[in-house]
UniProtKB/TrEMBL annotation:
It comes from Brumimicrobium oceani. PANTHER family: LIPOPOLYSACCHARIDE CHOLINEPHOSPHOTRANSFERASE LICD (PTHR43404). The lineage of its organism: Bacteria, Pseudomonadati, Bacteroidota, Flavobacteriia, Flavobacteriales. Residues 24-240 form the LicD/FKTN/FKRP nucleotidyltransferase domain. GO terms for biological process: glycoprotein metabolic process. This is LicD/FKTN/FKRP nucleotidyltransferase domain-containing protein. InterPro entries: LicD/FKTN/FKRP_NTP_transf (IPR007074), LPS_cholinephosphotransferase (IPR052942).
Length: 300
């Protein structure tokens, strides 16, 4: 399919990813390309033809080291790059490196995902706690309609206590603290992204240590990035055994509805993003209050 400005977007994403890779190599910060980026590297030797996304994963401590380097050595010295979520009015569980020259849907700078990966003890208790956090996150931020949380104290604390205004953002702050506590890496742990299957239609399997480590080089658009250790297991866990075959033509669409050159300066983009996400936070407060009210009625 033809999609205007798609290849220019892919090249902008590739430029950012190369910059991150070079800084990570300079500072000995491990990372690996993930999800559709790995699939594209294996199936297409680069971007999937219709993809307008690029993902890099980091263990928790490495993630924070990487952000420090980007703040000090990349963003201040690049006229178009910003750390996307630092321009929201409230904290977010992950970060993106964005290029303000190109926008999705007329407003949002295109970006690469810089994803935290949690190291979880492989016990029923730890896995259930993580599922509860993720399910509550998905429910509160309108990613899933059904509330599938077993911990009733968690429901009480985050849904029913305190002011309705910015209730989601208060939970997000605690969720970030929980994620950052999962930084102890053990070989018998399992590994999962910050959001795991929160926005997926099916459950995403946890990765084991040997699936990911040691990371190894894999070419993507002729450039040697680092990827997961066991590509076969990694891709099968995510996409099934038939991952090498593309989806039907009617499913081959970019994430964005539109890609175009930005009409905003870097500073104006940052101000606009702050305003847009502030408005989303207020709107989300009211929509969540409505969902909680419906929950109460359902349990009467």
């Amino acid at each position: 399919m033809e999609f205007k400005y798609l290849r220019e977007t892919q090249m902008a994403l590739l430029e950012m990813a190369k910059d991150v890779d070079q800084l990570c190599r300079k500072h000995n910060i491990p990372y690996w390309i993930s999800t559709g980026t790995v699939l594209g590297a294996v199936r297409n030797k680069g971007f999937i033809e219709w993809d307008d996304d690029l993902d890099l994963c980091f263990l928790i401590d490495d993630y924070h080291r990487m952000l420090k380097v980007l703040r000090e050595e990349l963003v201040p010295n690049h006229p178009h790059f910003i750390l996307y979520n630092e321009n929201r009015p409230f904290p977010h569980y992950s970060e993106y490196l964005a290029d303000t020259r190109i926008v999705r849907d007329n407003l949002y700078p295109v970006k690469i995902d810089l994803i935290k990966v949690k190291s979880l003890p492989n016990t029923p208790e730890a896995l259930q706690k993580d599922r509860d956090y993720l399910n509550l996150l998905a429910f509160m931020f309108d990613k899933k309609k059904e509330l599938l949380v077993k911990d009733r104290d968690m429901i009480q604390k985050y849904l029913y206590e305190g002011s309705f205004l910015f209730k989601r953002e208060r939970f997000m702050k605690d969720y970030i603290e929980y994620v950052d506590s999962l930084n102890k890496v053990e070989k018998d742990h399992v590994f999962v992204t910050t959001y795991n299957d929160m926005i997926a239609t099916k459950e995403v399997k946890h990765m084991h240590y040997d699936h990911l480590f040691p990371v190894k080089e894999i070419d993507f658009e002729t450039y040697p990035f680092f990827g997961p250790n066991d590509l076969e297991v990694y891709l099968t866990n995510l996409y099934g055994k038939d991952y090498i075959n593309p989806p039907p033509v009617n499913q081959r669409e970019p994430f964005a509805k539109k890609l175009s050159k930005s009409v905003f300066s870097k500073s104006m983009s940052k101000k606009l993003m702050w305003t847009l996400y502030a408005m989303k936070a207020v709107k989300g407060s009211f929509s969540l209050a409505s969902k909680i009210k419906k929950l109460n009625k359902a349990h009467l």
